[in-house]
Structure formats: C-alpha cells, structure tokens
Specification:
By secondary structure, the protein is α+β, with helices and mostly antiparallel strands. 38% of the residues lie in helices and 26% in strands. A hairpin with a 3-residue loop joins strand 3 and strand 4. The protein is globular. The mean pLDDT is 92.
C-alpha cells in the first residue's frame, strides 16, 4: 500500500538504495511485498537490515509487536483488522520481526528479542518450522549465555 501511494518503481529503487547504504551487497528487491521469488537476500544481509532498522528507526519494530492491528478506511470509515502470523508477537521479550513465506523458499523469519538488556537477532531461512527452529536457537542461546558484569 505504501509503495502504491509513493509510486511502486520509486519505492523499489529506494528499497535497493537503502540496502546498498546498509552494506547489503547480496540483496536485491524486485517487489515491495516480499512475495516475489525475484527478491533475493542472505542471512548476513538480513542481519544488516535488522541492525539498520534498529539503529535508524527502531519504532518500525513496534508495529510488528502487535498481535492484531485495526485500521479505519478514510473514505468509507470501515474498520479493517489484521492478525499477525508471528507467534512471538505477544511475548514480552519480543522486540520485533518479519515473517515470510513463499513456496519457492518455504518459511522465513527474522526475529529480534531482548535478553538481559541485549538484542538478539535470529534469522531462519527455508524452514518448514520457522517458529520452532527460532525457539530452539533462542533457548540454546539463553541457556548458555550469561552476561558479564
């Protein structure tokens, strides 16, 4: 919707420009929705994306913390609701994230958690159980990590 408002082509150009500025050398966007197989990235580049968002506009993550969002259409006054597919959205340690799924790549999930005042970014790509695998990695980390004074 935002891309359509600002102009799809210009929006995609800005997405690719921002990716370049954040050092995401192995990322290329062809579609703003994330639903095109032509969009390509790597776990390393997605980490740079998470770091860039956190540093420059961490309020973006707040949108992804919601389990449900309601929006009022300006023209009709009709209220539209959308529920999050992110199983971590209701957790107190969840800072934000992005889910994704297309048949060509299975499930993908970028999750940002806060643990002992530290940010943990977990990226799972090409998974049939992206939430389960993220939970396993998170538990492995939190069970083995102890903050030093």
């Amino acid at each position: 919707a935002v891309a359509n408002y600002f102009g799809r082509t210009d929006f995609i150009l800005e997405m690719n420009k921002q990716a370049t500025e954040w050092g995401m050398a192995d990322t290329h966007f062809e579609d703003p929705s994330g639903l095109s197989v032509s969009n390509q990235s790597t776990a390393s580049d997605l980490l740079k994306l998470a770091q860039g968002i956190t540093k420059e506009n961490s309020d973006v993550w707040k949108i992804t913390e919601n389990t449900k969002v309601s929006i009022r259409e300006l023209s009709s006054g009709k209220i539209l609701s959308s529920e999050s597919t992110n199983q971590f959205a209701s957790r107190s340690d969840f800072f934000g994230g992005k889910t994704g799924y297309i048949p060509a790549s299975d499930g993908n999930l970028l999750s940002v958690f806060l643990y002992q005042k530290r940010t943990i970014v977990i990226i799972v790509l090409g998974s049939q159980d992206r939430f389960g695998e993220t939970e396993k990695i998170y538990n492995w980390f939190t069970n083995g990590y102890r903050a030093s004074n």
